[in-house]
Amino acid sequence: MPVVGGIAVEIPAKPKPTSKAERRAIQEAQRAAKAQGLKEKPVVPGPTENAAAKPANNEVSKESEMNLENKPDKPVTVDVTKKSEPATKPKAKETQKEDERRRTEQRKRNDESLFFYWDDCKTHGLFQWGLDRGEDVLGDPQFEDIEAVFQELGEKYSSFVVRGSNQRTLELLNTVKEYVLEYKTPEGKGFKQEICTMLQCYLSKLKVYRPFAIGMSSAIEGLYAAIRHLDDDESEDESKKYLIRWCDSFVDEKIEKAVESMAQKGFEKILDGDTILLYSLTEPVYEVFKLAKTSTKRFNIILALTNSGTYLSDYKRLKESLGEETLQSQVHISCINISSTMTYISSVTKVFLGGHALFTTGGVMAHAGSSTIALCAFQLNIPVLFFCETYKFCDKSPTDTFYQDILFSEEKSNASSEVPVSKVVASNNKVSDVTTAKIRYDVTPVHLVTCVITDIDMLPSSSVPVILRVQESRSLFKL
Q1: What is the per-residue pLDDT across 101-114, written as a single tens digit (0 to 9) for each?
Q2: Are residues 248 and 278 in the same domain?
Q3: Rounded to the nearest 10 degrees, what angle do helices 257-268 and 283-290 cross at?
Q4: In the predicted model, what is the mean pLDDT of residues 410-420?
Q5: What is the model's pLDDT at position 38?
Q6: Mean pLDDT calculated for residue range 84-100
Q7: Does 275 lie in the same domain as 207?
Q8: Which phi and psi (to 5°) does residue 262 adopt?
Q9: Beta 407-408 vs 357-358: how paired, if at all?
């Protein structure tokens, strides 16, 4: 209560509206007052300083533009008789040729970057396998001091006279035996160190003729291990006998007896009335059908072929393995092109394929086209059996299907067989920018492989690490 002059004065409170109608009238009056205040609020004009700052001749230019817009359009004439001078002078002919040469080299490098060993072969002038390989090597000073036995072996490799991993490994070990027998240690030097150095030199040059197979690399590693086990106190003759005995034991155990064991296991899987699809023929596959001569089983063979130029030799060797009497009474052979595999795969009961190598991932390296046949058989749940010796097992894990692949020219593959060179290939080889080559091998993934028949037993392809551990813990014979 306020106090005025010492006397408390009671100010009457403003009466509040009690009804809804009164409160609604008050709200309407407030809205009306607020709207009236907004209307009376002055409007702020836009900036005019820039407009004022513009020069006066700007207005004139606007007027001229308006006049031009009102005028009718006039046709535009161009004097074509006048020649405009080039902005830059044309390049000289030498510069243009240099640019063209660089583009050609870059294009070739891009084409060849997929295969790592193309550049090495091209450096030595040995790009196409087996084409004038001997002359190029003889002309290279790097190969002047190569031993005659290794040079002869390299010419056999490059010309495909020796084919197949087993045959190539066998020829390599025989050449090493011949060289070891004829080798004489220089005075004042040890046999163990010198023989290892010389073999490493010659084998590295031998690889230029043609890349080593996986089995050949395994044999070479075992040979170096045998050289390391030599005693320094042993005589030269005793060391030579030891190395020769090791080579003979490797051939006997890892190749000959292994092939016999694999052939026996593979023939047990053939039943009466079977239809077997063959491709990528190797030594064990041929030995399987040699056993048909001594049995009474009747079955059919479908041999898948390509135009690689070697199918005639494969077919003839298969016929020789079976024999004329067996072909007439027990076995019937049909030949198809690999492109028509899907047409005939429905009548097949088993697929036999020869393996070139087996990796830790379970992939099997075989002749190009094996993965295609395995895929067709996998779609129809047909068992796919690979034949691969344990010395071809590899501790590598490739990430692509062209690992350590071999390319050879179509012309050379046909020249080594009875099939003439086709006109198309001959015409393509004349073009400087085109290099005719074919892929030799591919890798079949593990899920397409039913099992692998080895000299140990029938194993899944994923058991490679176990086999490698067992092989490392033992030697071919007691030292």
Answers
A1: 787 777 666 555 54
A2: no
A3: 60
A4: 42
A5: 67
A6: 62
A7: no
A8: -65, -40
A9: unpaired
Task: Determine the Cα–Cα distance for residues 455 and 251; give it in Å rounded to an integer.
Answer: 13
The identity of residue 349, as a single letter, is T
pLDDT for residue 198 is more than 50: yes
- For the chain, the average pLDDT equals 76
Sign of CA dihedral 189, 195, 200, 203: positive
CA 387, CA 59: separation in Å to the nearest integer?
A: 95
How far from each other are the two terminal CA atoms of the chain, in whole angstroms? 124
Using the 3D structure, point to which of 256, 279, 307 is the last residue of a domain.
Answer: 256
CATH number at residue 343: 3.40.50.10470
Q: Which residues contact 462 (CB under 8 A, 6 or more apart)?
A: 362, 446
Question: Does pLDDT of 170 surpass 70?
Answer: yes
pLDDT(419) > 90: no
Residues 248 and 315 in one domain: no
Determine the Cα–Cα distance for residues 372 and 365; give it in Å rounded to an integer: 13
What are 436-466's pLDDT values in tens digits? 556 788 899 999 999 999 999 999 988 888 8
Nearest to 204 by CA among 276, 124, 277: 124
User: Which is more confidently placed, 418 or 356?
Assistant: 356
Parent domain of 341: 269-405+440-472
Number of domains in the chain: 2
